[in-house]
Each structure stands twice: as C-alpha cells, then as structure tokens.
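LAB NOTEBOOK - FOLDING QUEUE
OPERATOR: T.R.
BATCH SIZE: 2
PURPOSE: Compare the predicted structure-token outputs for two unrelated chains run back to back under identical settings.
PRIORITY: normal
REVIEWER: second-year student, initials M.K.

ITEM 1
FIELD SEQUENCE / FIELD STRUCTURE:
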Amino acid sequence: MNSAPEKLTLPLLQSKMKCDPEGYECELVLLYNQFKSSMELFKQQASLHFTSVGGIGSDPSVAKDLSDRAMFLAHVTHLYPKHLIEFPKQLADLLNSSSKSLPSGLRCHIAQALILLINRKMVDIQENLALFVELQTLGDRTLRKLTFSHVIHSIKRMNQKHKNEAKNRALQKILFVLLQQEDEAKAKRSLITLCELHRRKVWFDERTANAICTACFHSSPRIMIAALSFLLDYEKIEDGEDDSDEESGEDDVASQTSQVILSKELVYKVGEGTN
C-alpha cells in the first residue's frame, strides 16, 4: 500500500510517480485538488488586499503551497495527461486574471510551471505568446527576463532544423498586432522581441523587417525612436523601465548592438504605406 502523501516530500513523491504512475493516481488526485483549493483561496485573499507592482501582502504560506503544488504538477503532467488536461489552462488563466496581484515569487513560479509544459510540448507557445509579452510589462525584472528569454529560445529552437512558415506567421501575427497597439509597454516588448529575433537571424525575413519599419511611425515617440535606432544601428535599443522605482539598466537586447541590414528604400516604402 502506498504511503500517505502527507508523509512524502513532493520531490520524493514525484520520483515514485515516475516509477509507478498508476500506483500513485490517488495521491495525484489529492494533490491536484489541493492545488485547486489553494488557487481559489489565494484568489479570495487577493481580492481583499490592495494590488501593487510588488504583489499583495497575502499569507505567505498560501502562496508557497500554491507555488509548490504548481511546480510539482507541472513536472508530472506528462505522466497523467488525462487527469491534468485542464492544468495548463488553469495556470494561464491565473496569470491572465491575477498577474498584477500575485506576489513576485509566486508569479515567477507559475510562469516557470507554464514554461516547463511548453518546453515539454504539452502546451503550444502560440497559445501563450501574448500572455508572456504582457507579463514583461509588469515592472518585475526577474519575470521579464524569464519570459523574454523563453520566447526567444522557444522560437529559435522551433526553427533550428527547418522553418515552419505557418507557425512562424501565426506567431509573427500576434507580435505584429501587439506592436501596432497604442499600449506603449506592450508595443515596446513586441518590438524588442522582433528586433532580437531579427538580430539572431531567426526571423530574418521581409515580414519582420516591414513590421520593424512600420514601428518607425508608431504614435509613441519612444517606440518610433527605438525602431529607428535599431534600423540605423544606433548603439542599442534601451530596455530599461521609465519609472524611478523600476530597473533602468541594460537588459535583454539592450546590451546587444543590432546587425540588421535594411535599405532606406524599404523604410520609405513602409512609410508611404502608412500615409
């Protein structure tokens, strides 16, 4: 008979599940129910607290329980795909609905759990690309680096052996739409992502070049200057935050000098198309 789950540490239980998935289905169901209960409890606590950039002052034990169970379930989802079929969506929904109120540590762990599922091809990055861009706008530098790096490396890895044009077009469309929005923070993160993928020659195509050129005519002067700076190879695209209480150092592609080669004619052509 299996040991009671409360007498097993989560890492030990995870190891036992890998060896005997069927033998630990009851423990899995119990832990999954605990995760859902913790998530609901946390949402209730979050609704009672003032929301801030740094997260809410909720009971740390509730956040830790939710974080531990989320990471545990992410590691065993491939062993119980039927039992945990809704789990990836629940993670994404939590980030979509409560990312601003989640404490920084919990927010990062939920994002890491979702990233793990994407890396294991249990979730498609296309479903969460817009979410990862939005998470980069919260003023949380650790989360920004985590999600930005994941997006870049996922798309790069996807194109290593061969180019999946249909998939690339779908992902590009998401970023192009975000880039055209008046929301400066989302547009900026979309532009930085496109520029980095172009610089790495992952998306070294006309569609991406056109999108970057179009950003030269964005309603936000900052987006316009950033796009022009990249096209003109002007040192860097600054990836700092404007608020005094947020990071302002170089980060992501900020420390990289762009290597894009685009003709002036292409820039003018795009400009004429926006008039």
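ITEM 2
FIELD SEQUENCE / FIELD STRUCTURE:
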Amino acid sequence: MSDLAVKSGEGTGVSDSPAESPSGVGEERDKSVIVPYRRFKMFSCNECGRYFKANSDMKRHSMLVHGKQRPFECVECGSRFGIRGDMNRHVKAIHRRVRPFKCDHCSVTFARKSTLATHVRSVHMREKPFCCEFCDATFTTKATLHGHLRSFHVNDAAKNIRLNSAS
C-alpha cells in the first residue's frame, strides 16, 4: 500500500461510512482522511479544515471554537471565548498591549510571532503565496483569498462543486 492518500480499503483505517457532522444537523460526510506520509487516521474540522488525530478532539474544537459554547469571558470587554488560552491571549494583546515580536525592517510590533512572520513575508518580501483558482489574483494570506472568493467567485465555486460532483 502506498503512503499517498487512499479513498478506502482493507487495513487503511478509513471507513466508507460517512461520519456525522459535529452539529448533528445537515448532510453527513466523511471527515476522516489518511494524510500523505502518515499511517494514522486524521479528522478534519468542517469549518476551518484543521486536522486532529482523535475524533473527540475535533468535536471539542468544533464545539468550542465554532459553536456557541464560549464559557470564558473577558472581564475588560465582555468578549467570550471557547478556550481559556484564547481569552488570555486576547487580554494580553488587546487590553495590555503586550507585543513582544518586533519587525527588524520597520520596528512594528506584534502580539504573535506568526503575525510578524506574515507581515515580513507580505510587506517586506512582497510574497503572495495564495492564488485564486478562478482568476490570476494572488494574496498574502489565506483569509484575504477566502474574502476574495466570497466577494467575486461565489457562482464560480458553486459551478465548480456541481461539475466535480457530476463526474
């Protein structure tokens, strides 16, 4: 058996039966995949595509991050969070303005190392690694690509899905 992704088969750990959606409502679909170069089953979040080793971790993530269950409240502004660490990060970055990551090129500071890295790639290196599949537009972040798709290619995406499901 190859290490590349497989649809199903004996000994792969992937089931042909669809898994129920985290909300328990709507269309059922298989959330499990075999990731290339890995021999274990992964579960992906329907909302953001993040992968998890355990289905229970994926369901917890979905409920806390995308669901309505947000038990942790910021005492400063009332914003609610599904995960305590997210609330603590919010308090540090927004209310205490803790920004320990400084750009060597322009001295702008950031609360997260990943945001600094994105800033350097997009502003100083002018990288635009995210490409639209429907036109020649390129973007610095996945979020801006998704915004572009929602604004300009809603019908193109629907047509593409219909064409792929027909074949």
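REVIEWER COMMENT (ITEM 2): The longest helix spans residues 154-166.
FOLLOW-UP: none requested
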